[in-house]
Write a structure and sequence with these properties.
Elements (H helix, E strand, L loop, with lengths): L10 H18 L4 H8 L5 H34 L9 H7 L13
């Protein structure tokens, strides 16, 4: 053991480690400290905990959908056959933009 290392022993330290893990994972998932506290609260209302988790799961699912759409846009730009991707009809469709823009000739 190095100087300054702490090796917790026993069930109390295991509980602390688990709470720290929950907090870190919750932070990574974008949860507030208040939300994490509600989830971990002993004797807390199981219904409210479930509702909180269901809402947060939907928030995460929406974020994942948005991120996947962003990945698709980036992938299109990287492989776009148009010299100016801003004039690419497919790119504009990915963005949901139906504004008419004169298309430049394709690059073959």
């Amino acid at each position: 053991m190095l100087l300054g290392e702490v090796h917790p022993v026993g069930p109390a330290s295991a509980g602390r480690e688990l709470r720290v893990s929950v907090i870190l994972r919750g932070k990574q998932a974008g949860m507030s400290l208040e939300q994490m506290s509600e989830i971990m609260r002993n004797g807390g209302n199981g219904v409210s905990r479930r509702e909180l988790l269901l809402r947060h799961r939907e928030t995460l699912a929406e974020r994942m959908r948005e991120l996947q759409e962003s990945v698709q846009v980036i992938e299109h730009i990287l492989g776009c056959p148009q010299e100016d991707f801003m004039r690419c009809a497919e790119f504009r469709i990915l963005l949901g933009d139906d504004t008419e823009v004169p298309l430049s000739p394709s690059v073959d």
